[in-house]
């Protein structure tokens, strides 16, 4: 009887540990927003050829906001989303809406001028009002709520940064104050702090899905699982070749976070990833504010609600780094560091979710919104949002619609996508492009192996077989997943991201799943899949692309 009882409880313990391990593994690849959106509308894939006024590539906050504005203006619009609406960076953000920016407005005043910094600040303020208005008018259940933003430091050498940011906001005509305390946190050894009221939080995925549902009811055509493979701007129209048909239109908006295909803006918008850890608190006392801790790693602290307006989740974000340029140990360290920070400052009960998101940073800290280049007449882009994209994406949607309809907009000059690099940003431009060049010169990224047998279960590494560079992952069932390691965008060698189980390009930020499928651009084509004999673990020569590869003759330029 005792033996049976022990066996019974042993099985319970093993089962519990298995569930815990699975939870830890899955929370690294699922955002809080995805997990708390159980019912989402589904939109069909394109089926055949269509003709519209404006085609929008990308169904995130930028694309859907643009679609809403254009539909309201009487345009016939189609949104083409490669995966699911809101499934990109929008659904993997931190759900905060605020006027200040991660690059700092005073740095924008230095890299451009105070007028541009003021325009950026006022545009972001208007975007917050716009989101609140849409939420109310369309009755979107996205937990929108106003609250203050705090910016503080406990280090003497960071005091001037806080003071300069307040000064720049005040010059823009906005209310921001230096304060002596951060009441929700009551931090020891506070050196300087600032406060700005009227900022906000919301559920970004529910918001975008609510907008998408509303604009679809107004006649906008939204297509999911529809990948754009080629784009050509003609004299009087544009042609988009997709995975399910051809779209003819008068204008195109590329709202894919970074333009897909090969584009000159990719030399001035560098890809970065940042990390988020979401957790429950023992006390249940969640501070109702958004905080920037101006320390060495620039932690952001926020709180959100799962199913109602009541706060029940703490989030810590930070640890920006160039996409594809971290070691295997560093990927896990970024999450662990955020958790350690949270446990130091809060009574953490449990870690519920971990995720990361992609951002693109411009040299002068201001996004590129507008015509794709000086000779373009019909194609528009929006990129370079860095980690402030929910607000910038809304700005982009409003501005791009105004440009297409010919309506005046005072923001256009500040965000001009055709602007060049000035002396103040030349250093950043050179640094980022030297970094890209260095990635091409590397033989292999971190994690090189010499044979398939060198790769353990759960590991991903690059390997060279018969002069061919391969990206190889061995799963927990000991099965190999092999693709070409050469990024299909501009031939850089991908690096394995062991925290998210993806292949990330260190040059321009393209990311791929283990089977080689594109997660996010600028790459259009999947990594070429390779077949391996499961018995001998030798490559099987298939004589070219394997089934499921997308091939096009003319990539987007």
UniProtKB/TrEMBL annotation:
Gene Ontology molecular-function annotations: 2 iron, 2 sulfur cluster binding; metal ion binding
Top-level lineage group: Bacteria
Keyword Iron-sulfur: yes
Lineage: Bacteria, Pseudomonadati, Bacteroidota, Cytophagia, Cytophagales
A GO cellular-component term linked to this record: membrane
Pfam families: DAO, Rieske
Classification via SUPFAM superfamilies: FAD/NAD(P)-binding domain, ISP domain
Cross-referenced Gene3D superfamilies: D-Amino Acid Oxidase, subunit A, domain 2 (3.30.9.10), FAD/NAD(P)-binding domain (3.50.50.60), Rieske [2Fe-2S] iron-sulphur domain (2.102.10.10)
Record keyword Iron present: yes
Organism: Adhaeribacter soli
All copies of domain Rieske, residue ranges: 447-541
Designated name of the protein: FAD-dependent oxidoreductase
Keywords tagged on the record: 2Fe-2S, Disulfide bond, Iron, Iron-sulfur, Metal-binding
